[in-house]
Amino acid sequence: MTTGTVKSVHSESGYGYIATEDGTEYYFHREALKLPLDFDDLFGGEHVSFEVEANFKGPRAVEVTRA
Predict the structure, then answer these.
(1) Which end of the chain has fewer CB atoms within 10 angstroms, the N or the C?
(2) Secondary structure of residue 22 in the 3-state scheme
(3) With 0-12 CB in 10 A as exposed, 13-18 as middle and 19+ as buried, what is 4?
(4) Which residues contact 13 (CB under 8 A, 6 or more apart)?
(5) What confidence tens digit (pLDDT) does each residue in 17-67 have?
(6) Cα–Cα dist 47/32, whole Å
(7) CA 51, CA 32: separation in Å to the nearest integer?
(8) pLDDT digits (tens, 9 = 90+) for 2-19
């Protein structure tokens, strides 16, 4: 598992970005969140854990949970 901080959430489009301590940013989609974490309750600054998955647009965060 990788940990990071929610950098931004774009609720109208259903995606956001997570930044790790080394400055790497990962895209995530609302469907990448594990219950009970709710996309509509996410705000910038929250600490999360996640898995990194390869995607045709680059690595993205999946299985996102609160850290």
Answers:
(1) N
(2) coil
(3) buried
(4) none
(5) 999 999 999 999 999 999 899 998 888 899 999 999 998 989 999 999 999
(6) 15
(7) 10
(8) 999 999 999 999 999 999
